[in-house]
């Protein structure tokens, strides 16, 4: 609570003190003001510095916007052929190279693979051994002699033995053999041993079947066609289906891979004996006789509930189709396809297809490397060697290599993988290990690595990856992720936004990291790396911190003078802003879409904290320096501080893109408090430079209107200067509205001072330039000067909105209550009000210059009207004046803005009224025609200045001097009697307004007897009469009479007795007057009660008078005019003592020397006034 009260009192003191920042400009300017002594032109260098100052400040304000545009353009990058920077990594990530001895052993393995190739090559494969050997010599960097030695060794070695892996997957659309519309299919398959070409031709005419009758078997001419018992395999029976699914796998040893043939039968099972058991028995016999007995046994088997005899062969298993596949037709990579079922003979009816997967591989290899190393390890070494060679020979964008190898390389790799019986999963893992390892030294396309990861995931089988392979896969994942995290940490150097290719690579890398952390394989072999996103967060944070430290090392903001240190800090902060913009526009999208990490928040919070720490320390040094008495803020230092503030404000502005919880606790939250004292001094620098700029603008102004405007260049320059200063404040965007009040008060005071000083300088310039100029050119320049001041005044009228005064009021009300709000309102609006008064004063000075120039001509034309003889009509008398005014009006209308035109017209109208009023006052008592002519003149001028609604308002013109002139003219046209009547009307009107005067009061009772036409007046008493004798008392008596005398020529004045030595006399006397209805009906008919002080030795003294209109007593219907009039209440009349000579009517009557009635009336009044003067 104490803190809040202290804050309130402090702010209120500042508010009260701010009201005196700019006092009314009635006092002469002090020499300390930059604008007070501007008749002398500014030094050229000073004015140039002021212009350059605002240009530099404007450049500071534009800098952040330019940086934003540059960042947006950078984010809209297109295709780029410039290679990305090198991806430098830790040496621990680089794998060891293979030795020469190992290369020779590996070469023997490859030659062995080429020599023992089997299978039908694919179109893209290389078929020539010579071409393959030529390629391999390059890959292994061997000579012809070395090759010949190794080739001879391979040819002398034992040839590879092959096996065939057969996978019976499923069949479809088989023929129905059972009564229920289905079949119970099973497969029997085996290898037919090698046959000569002639025998193969015979087989095409007579199909082989495992279920031949014994008689046909015994008739064969050759034992080669007999299938050995050990080569017979059978699948399970799938009951009641035409689309069986077996998914069973068999391996057959092959003696002659070039001539042997795979044969498969599909049968409908109609026997109770297990087919699997039958197959076992078949595999136990040997030779032709044993197989014959087995087939005979199957042929004789019947169903237990069959209707035929036990010897009938019609109940044997039904044939559904067969497949014959020569092994020399199997492709290198094997078969994985559907085979159409074939009949045994032309009369057989079969249908359907069977899905088989066939693959040939070596079961024994006679090489040194295969005897001591695993096939997986050998293939990995081979692929690594080929990758090294292939990548080294990529000419175009080697960093973007997609891993594609030459046909020769692909041929060798495919044959080796097939011969060593590597599964697709094993091959995928080996490719991933080799390419990811190679990538750590020689960059490849990240889409290749992502594709390899997807292949592993698609083929993934945890049971198939055990032991060394699992460990090696885990190591490859670990090394790759650590490699990527290292690149993330150095991403600003490795993947700069300036390189579209680098950003594309970075996006693919992040996708790979995002994919790898969700891979089944990764989760299986790296169970402890289940929080990879935390590692990414740590890498981003550490990378940002290290990058900032590199910035500090680059700019070294701790070196040099304090100003140099701040300039370097500005460069650091701007570099951070650019980095944050890239984080927001580019990097954050990549991170969030790929790995669901908020890169922007992590990087921004880290950099923001480091910037805040460094700037805070620097600004503490600045504040400490400025607090020293001998130190002042230089302009260069002020600009640097302002630039630093704006940069920090821009950096802080990025907080709006943070999650709400992260935006609350930031190190830059209150950074503006570090700049409070500096900003005060900075505003003074701006004020000084603005003053210089305004002086220069006035000095160079030729007072010529700008294009499509009625003001000159200096007004434009002043408002432009104000706009720039206002923009500086708006860009500062001081976050503490209550604290901003002092700054806004200062700014408002500066604006108002500069505007008033500008107006004064323009006025002085006009005053200096008026000598020697013709009326028109001077009037035009004066109009422009007026417009300049109005242009500036209108601009400053928007200050409450431009500087958000209402926001400051609300903030002060929240912090200091209603008193704070009212003080702010009074302080700010008081400044603006005073400025407006000062500008109006200067405008009046300028208008006075104009009217002073017009004064001789106007006097001449008014005198012309005054002296014109009665024979000239009014139009001719007034026309010279109107012609002059019309010409002047054309100039004014053309060159003045509407507001100034109204001001000038009002001044001209008031001037003319005063001039006519003076002319009339000088010519009292002349002929009525004189006053009629001036009445006509006034009406003509009224219409002229009204201009049919385009000029002054009639209501505004008919006030002030106009009323006085109109009354003067009206009265001067009246007769003496009419003037006297008007005199009494005014007195009656005045009497009604009197309340408790110091001259006392009189109590009377008046009533009228209509039949007798008699007015009875009772003077009862008086009170508080003024003391006119030396003893402090008076000897009062009352004179009562009917006025005016020309209306009551027969009525005599009457008087009461004298009451000696009293101020409260009691008279109780009756007086009677004859009053006819024709007399009392006039509004000016009245009774006058004159109280006099009786003197024995000198003239009686005037003590006061009062009047009462007869209409109050005599009109029919009044209580006083009835029979009960005597009982009415007395009337109290307050006395007055005004000097008659002060009334215009007296002066008019006094001027009528030849009028007896007028002179007599004036004489009587003068006697009263004389007695008042003697008293």
TrEMBL record:
Pfam families assigned: C2, MUN
Cellular component aspect of the GO annotation: late endosome membrane; plasma membrane; presynapse; recycling endosome membrane; secretory vesicle; trans-Golgi network membrane
Occurrences of domain C2 (ranges): 143-302, 998-1123
MHD2 domain location: 875-983
Keywords for the protein's UniProt record, in alphabetical order: Cytoplasm, Endosome, Exocytosis
Transmembrane region(s): none
Family statement: Belongs to the unc-13 family.
Protein name in the entry: BAI1-associated protein 3
